[in-house]
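Regression test attached.
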Amino acid sequence: MPQTDAPRSAFDAATAVTSTDGGGLTARLDPGWDVGPGILNGGYLLAVVARAALTASPHAHPVALAASFLRATPPGPATLTLTPGPAGRTLAHSSVLLAGAEGPSLAVQVTTATLTDEPPVYSAAIPPDATPVADCLPPVDDGALPHPLPEVGLRTRVHTRLDPVTAGWARGRPGGEPYLRGWVRLADGREPDPLALLLFADVLPPTSWATGRFGWAPTVQLQVLVRALPAPGWCLVEARANEVAGGWLDEDYRIWDSTGRLVAQSRQLARLPR
Amino acid sequence: MPQTDAPRSAFDAATAVTSTDGGGLTARLDPGWDVGPGILNGGYLLAVVARAALTASPHAHPVALAASFLRATPPGPATLTLTPGPAGRTLAHSSVLLAGAEGPSLAVQVTTATLTDEPPVYSAAIPPDATPVADCLPPVDDGALPHPLPEVGLRTRVHTRLDPVTAGWARGRPGGEPYLRGWVRLADGREPDPLALLLFADVLPPTSWATGRFGWAPTVQLQVLVRALPAPGWCLVEARANEVAGGWLDEDYRIWDSTGRLVAQSRQLARLPR
């Protein structure tokens, strides 16, 4: 149980939703979770949407979210229109439509359930042999890298330690594989949970950066599956594009907790950076 | 162009949607596309939903569908409620709610666009070294197998030739890996297109069958990405579960056309067979 006198986590505050007198839900989208001027991170928005879905669910956790990114969502006041679907003992469905100042921007199918940390009966998702956190790229630009991670809001909210094995591009030596991995945790010290895993499911730069293409790859549709309650500590996040064709790319994420347990998977379809 | 005197494909007929006078859309769900008594195949339903989305899109093809399976959809009359989203030169978004006799059963986020067969600029999705079609399992039960594919409607609509390398279970020798692959094509002779790929994205038995667990694994949420226009001929379909835990499993599909080109990917979260 959290101590009642503990300072509220920045992540919890920035993803909070509020019930209105009319029975609706609102949020105040925090400009600090951006990945570029006025562009909020998709995973951050999913965490807000999941909180809205949980307000009407008998279950405690998001287990599957599928989101269409209709248009960019600006920071500021937003409304969440929640349409509950069937709810049972095992799981509950709902749809959530997030609308910012410029209209509906994110349409999401949500499934909630109650996750556990009971061990898998089968797992083929072995974590990669990643470089230890202490030997990864520095969390902030210390001037040593020709192409550091941009100092966008998201990087000050999520400590991101890229594995140097997949970050040749940061040293001016991009590779041939659209593959990135790194360790992440919330900068506010809050331990990971299913809501934080939604954030982590879109937390790395576009995989095209690994090949030296540094544009922004706008997400078109993103599915995230949360598979277990994560243990405290750093999460290892891996992102890989499997196919780049016709102006489209997919990005597959796998996330393991500090014990090496697979805790989330995501797949997005995105447009190729120009 | 199809010849105007060609007999209509059974798949096209079974997935047709009709505009009503009131501006709505209806379909007549064909009981022949079942995977068990009264249970229609999820991929078949997605093809119907995609046709509904295309009626209001400036684009020709489904490229991303994400569906929440709210409850089983019975055969018979169904309505499709289409909510168009933003539409542009590159892509269009919409939401479709499918309702059968028992109420809303499938809530889907759809993205449409116009696909090509231009070669990929990057691909890491190399097709597996599958057994040639002629040496695969027989398409119908010839009495030689202790556990053949059940003769459900879907198998008479889709020719399914399982690779014996992944079908030890059919011979009474299940393996340890939840992995299946096989060749598929429409029984009506119609060549594959993006709508058929939606069908193929959920066409194999549950991957748990490979390990000797023969129950039904109900889909909770399914995302399908269509990546290119498929060439004529057989498609190779591969399904793999990565993690089975807490009563949940994921199933990842990859589909290649007859030239070995990756043409679709899907991922579903399902409940474990009892």
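Expected vs. actual: identical. Helices of chain A lie at 10-14, 42-54, 153-157, 194-200.
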